[in-house]
Write the structure tokens for this entry.
Amino acid sequence: MILQGKRVRLRATERDDLPLAVQYLNDPEVLMWFGQPAPLGMDDEIAWYERMRQDDGVINFAIEVEGRYVGGCGLTGINHVHRRAEIGIFVGDKSIWGRGVGSEAMALVMGYGFDYLNLHRIFLRVFAENTRAIHVYESLGFQHEGRFRDTEWRHGRWHDMLYMSVLETEWRQRSAGKVAD
Ligand SMILES: CC(C)(COP(=O)(O)OP(=O)(O)OC[C@H]1O[C@@H](n2cnc3c(N)ncnc32)[C@H](O)[C@@H]1OP(=O)(O)O)[C@@H](O)C(=O)NCCC(=O)NCCS
């Protein structure tokens, strides 16, 4: 299934995307507050791709802008009993940061989670210093739930992790408001 937004198109990640994904996911700026700060090779990425395809609890999308693969997003840990999942995103092409791509991709995945997977709750974890991402999540209606202190060590020091979530009812209220505007 393809999710088409105004500028952003979400589609299946293909093997042909993996070389660019490796390039993006080795970039220290992309990795500043995301992923694993370790060297990532093609074999690692192919192994991730194969695992992801076998995992019923994962829905992954490639983010495409003007026909170009620019990053990835999706839902993990999908639980159909408790109707919850964790959302994640990276825009690997830094030249387009700040142009609304991350926000639009997130909104498309959220809509997919609530409208097609019948989720009740979508949550995320974000480093407390990832102010750009936090701004995006707050703008989309994610509520702050808590702060886990000193959970991860990187850049030579400890970092806090914030938990945020949005419930289906909140998402629908916001969507109805947008239609009425
Ligand atoms: C976080 C990320 C997905 C955002 O994508 P994006 O395409 O740049 O997002 P958008 O352009 O939709 O929105 C960025 C918003 O942050 C704001 N912003 C930019 N830098 C900021 C900063 N340092 N602090 C606070 N807000 C900031 C922008 O003004 C914009 O807000 P606006 O739309 O109200 O003007 C992208 O930067 C990314 O992939 N980063 C690396 C990986 C990562 O951190 N992923 C998230 C892990 S939880």
